[in-house]
Amino acid sequence: MLRLLRGRLVDLGVVLAGVSVLAFAFIRLIPGDAVAIMLGANAEVTPERIAAMRTRLGLDLPIHEQYVTWLSGVLRGDFGVSIWTGKPVIDEIAAHIWPTLQLTVLALAAAVVLAVPLGILMARLRGRRGEAIVQAGSVVGLTVPPFWLGILMILALATFAPSLQLLGYVPFSEDPLGNVSRLLLPAVALSLPITANLARLLRSTLLEAMQQDYIRTARAKGVPARAVLYRHALRNALIPFVTSVGIMAGYLLSGAIVIEQVFAIPGLGRLLLGAIAERNYPLLQATILLVTTAFVLVNFLVDLLYALIDPRIS
Amino acid sequence: MSRFRKFVLAQGVAASALLGAFSVQAAPLELAVASSPSGLDPHIVTAFSSFQVIDGTVYEGLTALDENLAIVPGLAAAWEISEDKKTYTFSLREGVTFHSGGVMTSKDVAASLQRVMDEKTGSPLASRLAAVESVETPDPSTVVIRLKAPSAPLLSSLTSIAIVPAKYLGDTESLQRQPDGTGAFRFVDWQPNVAIRLTAHEGYWQTGLPKLEGVTYNIVPEAATRQVGLTSGQYQMLPNIDAVTALQVKAQPGIKLAETLELAYSLVGLNVTRAPLDNPKVREAINYAINRSDLVQAALFGAGVPGGPLSPALEQFATPTSDFACFTPSVDKAKALMEEAGVDTPVELKLLVLPRDDTKALAQVIQQQLAAIGIAVTLDIPEIGKFVQDWRNSDFDMFVSLNSGTIEPDDYFYRTFRSGGSTNVFKYANAELDALLDQGREETDPAGRREIYGKVQGMLACDGPAVFLTYGQLYTAMRDGVDGFTIYPNRSLGALKSVTLGK
């Protein structure tokens, strides 16, 4: 176990170091520089002002020096300040992280709660009438883009229940009910493909488990069919399911970026898109690094969890 | 009934009583806008996203504009201009207070002008006060502005210079996040990417105004979401929208539109340092080849008009487009001009396109129209950051873009078309035009100015560095029950102070 932990931590370090280089380099490859965009098409932009601004932001240094400066700051916990607002990047992220976390957790919870019964249902329907319909439904669920579903849901809402005001965002501290009800639609839209994915996975692992020797043994000793399915097959089938949930949590973060745009939710996705449009390098670097860290950490935790569920893994 | 259920019931009753209490209270007007401002300092930020939040609502200038873009008194109740046109004496309005408390005096006005002119502020408005020599404050309600030379645009420039408390002189941080002006609405808070809230300024100098409790600018990036929000009643107004959106919401019940001709215009910019665009005859040929009426139909859905160098909305200055020969399209004439210019066709040119739906549509039509005279146009549609960079560096053969027009011809002609002007990305240099522009700057007689700018328009219209295309119709959509709104061609939402909100 300890060896596993140590090995994973080394992996984590390598991945993050790689990401820091990529995040830094890629955003500088986007044509158009921060200063030109910042000063925009204003009348009074002289070359001197552009140069002065560049110096102030440290963008006149060679790129490797900029990287070293940035990295040494990051290692000390200083992520720099946003080019546009002058506020510490960490504050900007803190102000935007909650809606995304809420959305991710809600969507993931919805997906898990729905996927388990659906997966069992699909497994039980195998070879029976109705299987084709459920299978087709799951493929549709898998392929519908959440943002498109989101727009459809908004339109449907406006047509059938125009008095419900579910657009936008209110902080939880101001109006807890309003907060959750406004996050419901985007969470559902976001969770659909993941629900379908997880349900399909559970179906196939359940069916596979049902073929195992221990199931035959359980049946042979007279365990009721229900108990065979839930106590013996399901428990074993859940191991790959848990791994998958972890990976999905990462994908949800990226899905949230698009859905936040559609539902006007002020989360990390809006922050990230805004930062790209403004070429807000420090903000962009920190956000990418943070999201990647979250992704890698979740996978790391899943690996540990995996080891806990299945004692054979160590 | 169990104790628990009783408790739940009681909570429900209490909640509905609370909701009832809320719905009796007048609510603010809910607006939905597409993008977040980058800041709210009126002397630093000039983008529309900021302008529509603060102009005329939070901030006011010494002079103001009415809906026909005529100059009317603002925070100055009246003014006198000396015989030599170099001294302006403004009498300030009585009883004007700032949102942070405190009465506005001549000291605040002088400090505000100083703040704009101060290099450290880096204000893009500084050039509008270039003619100012000194600002004096003989008493608390009088401001005297002395000029180096007569400057006709001064009064219109002052409409765009917000008066802020004197304490912000030398402070370029505070107002970006926390505006403090004299307008009918006071800034409450700004939740990034969510909303900006304004509330009524109780001490507003115009009695009886504002009529609204407040205004909330909801920031909603997705167009479909904004539209649905309006039809469902969550938002009551979508300000400053284009024809396509307007047509879509117009079909919905309970929605009405206000419209006006916009100051902003579309144009094709030509890089006059690159062959064959350095030849005036080729530029004229392009003008003849482009059919502006087709552009209005194809790109603006008929909601707009062909326009010359000045917006037809600027009635006192704009030359009617019928006076420009090249505005009557003629492919034959264009071909003849190309031949005269000695250009070997087909000639290949790249068109840099501002990434917007309307400019992309324009570009495609222009591509076809120019193909007819042997100009093979390749479209280059970059992301906005790249566009701005190439535009600024004059790294293009041609570009198609939208320019925000201004109410003052001098301000915009001078920086855009004078040799070395700060937005003269065409690299155009014409000594005769330069002389006229210098002359226009000092001429204060309205008839004289009309004559000078008439000549300027004539020089720019057919073989200048820009092919002026169209002026669009601008709309504001609102729900029935929102009354008293007036739409402004410059996109100011200052008229919100007279708006009332019925059921």
Task: Report what the structure shows.
The complex is a heterodimer of chains A (314) and B (503). In chain A, 77% of the residues lie in helices and 0% in strands. Chain A is mainly alpha-helical. Chain A has two domains: 15-75, no CATH class; 97-309, MetI-like (MetI-like fold), CATH 1.10.3720. In chain A, helix 10 packs parallel to helix 11 (268-278). Chain A is globular, with a radius of gyration of 24 Å. Chain B is an alpha+beta fold and 503 residues long. Chain B has two domains: 4-23 and 41-177, Dipeptide-binding Protein, domain 1 (Alpha-Beta Complex), CATH 3.90.76.10; 265-473, Dipeptide-binding Protein, Domain 3 (Dipeptide-binding Protein, domain 3, Roll). Chain B is 32% helix and 23% strand. Chain B has helices spanning 3-24, 48-54, 106-117, 154-159, 174-177, 223-232, 243-250, 280-289, 292-300, 331-340, 357-371, 384-392, 409-417, 431-442, 446-461, and strands spanning 29-33, 63-65, 71-73, 76-81, 87-92, 132-139, 142-147, 185-191, 195-200, 214-219, 237-241, 255-270, 304-306, 347-353, 375-380, 398-403, 466-479, 482-483, 500-501. In chain B, strands 11, 12, 13, 14, 15, 16 and 17 form a seven-stranded mixed β-sheet that branches. A four-stranded mixed β-sheet of chain B has the order 1-10-9-8. Classes of the chains: A mainly alpha (314), B alpha+beta (503). At the A-B interface, helix 5, helix 7, helix 10 and helix 11 of A face helix 6 and helix 12 of B.
